[in-house]
Amino acid sequence: MLRIFTDTAANVPPHLLEQYHITAMPLTYLLDGQPTELVGHDYYEAMRKGAEVKTSLVSPALIRDTMESALKDGDDVLYIAISGGISGTCWSAELMAEELRGEYPDRMIRVLNTCGASLGEGLVVLEAAKMLEKGCTADEIIRQAEENCGRMRQFFMVDDLKYLRRGGRISAAAQVAGSLLKIKPILQSDPEGHIIQHSKVRGQLKAMETLAELYKEYAVDGTRTVGIAHADCPDGALRLQAKLRDAGQTGEILSVCYEPVTGGHVGPGTVALFFFGEVWR
């Protein structure tokens, strides 16, 4: 039997993890240097008040132990991971997988770099889990997951430029100018899964219109599930959902609050859009 693993950066809601028997290994985070259980509004409100976030990848030892528990049960392993372009988790998982392949030569152990995060990773995970539930083979599931990674489009608006500044993605001068002009950067994933700038617009309303326009430009099937992730910005998420419907999206829209690790890097107020288009990477 194939077992599907991912990490908490995939932003898959707990009820779906349970429904599809997916194991999500935790990335960890500190708030002002201390462990915390804050999530959602309380977490992002702490960030707005100046709390500093530090994040860590999934422990390699935990990855190994979790995978090995499945292998000992006679199962094969597929770990669908956060982008190797923004986290070392994927590469740690591959190192652990290589060790385990030597110890369990009769078992399949596969680590898939999604080049995505949040629902850019999570939608790939969910499609794989649904295929497993339908009785598809491991080869079929892996082949489709690889294709879905190549189809995944990820665009997002950040509300406050200071979080990008902390991550070294913009200059201090650009942060000041952008804040004064209410500039909202639209970012995207590049072919290797790094975050790069797509464009800049003025104001949240224009940003949501731009995200919907990008969906209309790149989506190829309006019935496929779309993902929206927001960092304590439910009004922006609802506005984007309405504009997606106007743009011809008729399928399921899975909307979630950003989990703390990836959300801690983009900052409160961020709204992100994830959908499948043509294969582009």
UniProtKB/TrEMBL annotation:
Protein name: DegV family protein
Cytoplasm listed as a keyword: no
SUPFAM superfamilies xref list: DAK1/DegV-like (SSF82549)
One MF term in the entry's GO annotations: lipid binding
Pfam families the record matches: DegV
Record keywords: Lipid-binding
Keyword Lyase: no
Gene3D superfamilies: 3.30.1180.10, 3.40.50.10170
Domain of life: Bacteria
PROSITE patterns: DEGV (PS51482)
